[in-house]
Design brief:
2 helices, 5-stranded antiparallel beta sheet, RqcP, single chain
């Protein structure tokens, strides 16, 4: 499954176009390698996403074409969520 589609289906990022932009800006890695939006993800992959003030590390647990809102978090395991201390709003 494409990275941008997985991020949208799992509801980590709400829109696929936003997921594509973030990946194409170099803010996502899959298994330690910088990923584009078209990068294929598989079960067991470690995905790191850098947002403005936080870095999210997840492990892909399941791949589905569609999912319900309440089941979206079952597609991945949250490994870590780190916040930058010097980030100001």
């Amino acid at each position: 499954m494409r990275l941008d589609k997985f991020l949208k289906i799992s509801r980590i990022i709400k829109r696929r176009t936003v997921a594509k932009e973030i990946a194409d800006q170099g803010r996502v890695t899959v298994n330690g390698k910088q990923a584009k939006s078209s990068t294929k993800v598989a079960i067991g992959d470690i995905v790191v996403i850098v947002f403005g003030n936080k870095t999210l590390t997840i492990k892909v647990k399941e791949l589905r074409e569609t999912t319900k809102k309440g089941e979206a978090d079952s597609l991945f395991e949250l490994i870590s969520e780190e916040y930058k201390e010097d980030y100001r709003i």
